[in-house]
Amino acid sequence: MTLVMVVTTMAIFATMALALVRALKGPTIYDRINAVNVFGTKTVLIIALITYITGHADLIDVALVYALINFIAVVTVLKLAKTRDLASSADVADGAVEHD
Amino acid sequence: MIDNDILRIVARFLIPLIMLFGLYIQFHGEYSPGGGFQAGVVFAAGWILFALIYGLDAALRVVPERAMYILMVAGVMLYCAVGVAGVMLGGHFLDFYPLLPGEHAAQQFGIITVEFGIGVTVATVVMLFFTLFARRKSQWEAAEVEDDQP
Amino acid sequence: MSKWKERIGKILRSMRYILSLTIVLAALWLAVSGVYKPLIMLLGVGSVALVVWLATRMKVVGVEHNPALYAGRLPLYWGWLAWQIVLANLNVARLILNPAQVRPRVFKVKVPHDTAVAGAAYANSVTLTPGTVSLQMTAGELTVHALDRRSAEELKSGAMARRIAWLEGSDTEHP
Amino acid sequence: MIETVIDIVSWICLLLGGAFGIIGGLGLVRLPDFFTRLHAAGVAETLCPLLIVLGLVLQSGLSLLTLKLVLILLFLLFTAPTATHAVARAAMLDGVEPSLGNDESEPTSGEPSSNT
């Protein structure tokens, strides 16, 4: 049983590596943010799998917290990248974001 | 980001859940990983999500900056008070056993109170970090305008 | 007189939302807690009260917390949506393994729902099924990016919009 | 007997979930432009968690752990499309142009069409 879970964990690690490739390659900042979002979702799954592999039922709380924090992190980075201003409530940036 | 309807509605739904989950971590430190520090961060994250969607001004109307400073200090004071109370009643610093008659009850009371102090401090400090960081741009712009005028 | 009636109705409605938020939060606490000692339960009551108080201060209590949304239709919709997600995933997985067949397109679909919540549910369901991503939602219209014709046709057939309308059926209030 | 069947179903779910994760990751690297890559991220964010959580739930039966797992899945399915939409909307408002394929070159005639 543990073997199957370890194999699944490896598959998810591979997915994370692929997401990391996209995050490094870009080309737009939105590509990077999207890749980081996938990376975060996979982290949650890995923590859930580790909970079962090790048998420490408490770890599932960490996964739950990470699922929440990941969303906030993506929203924050998106807002910072787009408006360069975390304090405003407006969405539309007057300054354009440089593409790298 | 208030004009993104979908994001706004989902955030409105999530914010109470995030804050409640922060408090859950706070009070279940005995039974699962967590405790004051993580709980404070998660609780503050709920407020930060609100600030991101509705703007910093609206968020500061919910939790005023003054209240943050007061609570920040109050949390540390609570922590110290429990520690010093142990010394006063004839133990070491942060020794919970002299606080209450029963050993288990004393331990539980001490840990919950201390963790609560930590949680309050961490939550308000994280909120303050965000506030100061988010204000940077407007302050910087204001300084620039002043520089332009002779 | 009617003005008073309106105001009382408004208060009653917001009480209803607050009550339903309280029930949801209490249920969540009981579900994740797993420790049913008096002390922890007492702290739970305090936590729920604090969160509800802050939520009303933030004014985030609203139609999102309408009890009708948690009614029996939701699990049925989720079941249907899960099946749609499986089908859409198979299609997109095929396209990823064979990227030459990708024919991206952008088009608009009507959002036939009254409430903003239903609109958001629709847009999220569209994004949740791979092959279609909602780009922007304006009044009554949703701009969608689709990966190929089949995903686009699937969405244009309106099956999902009809189900969302059925989901919100019992709720006719405007936010 | 029944336990073996449940075990096997759960293995299949876990492995399929991992496979869909890798397919999504591949798509994230292979597909041509930003908007198409969003769909690949969608594969990695919907069916992959769905199958893996299903596999784990079958392992643990009815317990507190199951409940928290289902909560995680709900949170993920709730937030993932929202984040994707926010990123897509920001990119579109920022002027990232989606590349569009034309229907004329679509190989529909030769392909057996399976309507779902």
Spell out the blueprint of helices and strands.
The complex is a heterotetramer of chains A (100), B (150), C (175) and D (116).
Chain A: H1 2-25, H2 29-54, H3 59-83
Helix pairs in contact in A: 1-2, 2-3
Chain B: H1 5-27, H2 36-54, H3 56-62, H4 65-88, H5 103-148
Chain D: H1 2-30, H2 34-60, H3 64-93
Helix pairs in contact in D: 1-2, 2-3
Task: Tell me about this structure.
The complex is a heterotetramer of chains A (100), B (150), C (175) and D (116). Chain A has 3 helices and no strands. Chain A is an all-alpha fold and 100 residues long. Chain B has one domain (5-148). Chain D has one domain (2-93). Chain D contains 3 helices and no strands. In chain D, helix 1 (2-30) packs antiparallel against helix 2 and helix 2 runs antiparallel to helix 3. The longest helix of chain D is centred in the C-terminal third of the chain and has 30 residues, at 64-93. The model of chain D is unreliable at 104-116 (pLDDT under 50). Chains in contact: A-B, A-D, B-C, B-D, C-D. At the A-D interface, helix 1, helix 2 and helix 3 of A face helix 1, helix 2 and helix 3 of D.
Short description:
The complex is a heterotetramer of chains A (100), B (150), C (175) and D (116). With 100 residues, chain A is mainly α. Helices cover 75% and strands 0% of the residues of chain A.
Number of helices of chain D: 3
In whole angstroms, the N-to-C terminal distance of chain D is: 35 Å
Subunit arrangement of the protein: heterotetramer
Average the pLDDT over all residues of chain D and give the rounded result.
81
Strand content of chain C: 5-15%
N/C terminus separation of chain C: 23 Å
How many discrete structural domains of chain D? 1
Order of helices and strands of chain D: HHH
Radius of gyration of chain D: 18 Å
* Total number of beta strands of chain D: 0
Helix content of chain C: 55-70%
- The rough form of chain D would be described as elongated
What tags apply to this protein structure?
heterotetramer; B: 150 residues; mainly alpha; 5 helices; elongated; C: 175 residues; Alpha-Beta Plaits; 3-stranded antiparallel sheet; globular
